[in-house]
Amino acid sequence: MPTYSSSVSERPTQTLWVSDVTKSYYPEDQQAKLQHLQAEVNSLLQQLQSLKAQRLSDQPE
Question: CA 46, 50, 54: angle at the middle one, nearest 5?
Fold first, then answer.
């Protein structure tokens, strides 16, 4: 199974795409759940990237 890596800068485009897809395939209650999960994913991705940057800056060269 391929892995997918994205940056925070790519997330808005992906979020719009997910939003368009969910609107056309899922009922409103499921759309709301998916949008909430997407927001959580975005938040966690930002946290991970922040931690990564912090660890890289804390390492001696």
Answer: 175
